[in-house]
Amino acid sequence: TNLGVTWVDARRLAEQGRVGLLGSPTSTGGPEGPQLLRFIDNHRLRVTLEWPDFEPAPGETDTILIDLDRGRAVPFPEDFPELTNAVFSADGHYALLHNRQREIQFWQVQPWRALSAKVPMNQATEATILGHDGRFAAAIGSAMHTLDIYDPRDMAKPTRVALPPTQGLSAWAAHSDGSL
After folding, report:
1. Which partner for 87 in 37, 96, 135, 176 could form a disulfide, CB atoms 3.0-4.6 Å apart?
2. CA separation for the pair 41, 66 (Å, rounded)
3. What residues does 78 pair with on adjacent strands?
């Protein structure tokens, strides 16, 4: 298997394109298969690779943006070395990029342009989600019992939401109105 995605025109029953994802950067450093496909529009597809069972669903880490018109994964910026994974906004216009030094940086996607400084990612952070239009980022940490909400342009100053100590967060979603 090439751990890829294939898209088909259902009216004509014809393959439209195929992209192999083997060798894509991942947070684990190893190959991960596609687990969730989400069309942004008729031209772009977000492909989220497998996420651990203990993270909230759907996972957002290890997402690849596919350009359906060109039939390829959108290349990551060369200005962000040692990329390990990306989280894209639902509209595909923004991304949080992570590197091997456990740093995170907020980027505009097309064209790639850094919109924040690189900041250290909290060691306790388990998963990250980015709001629809890049208005916020949220991260789960401390064994799924805290939710930190950030301005992605300044990831260093979160607002913490305490979750009940006997309950964790198992699912989440960013609404198109910018809420979580």
Report:
1. 96
2. 11
3. none
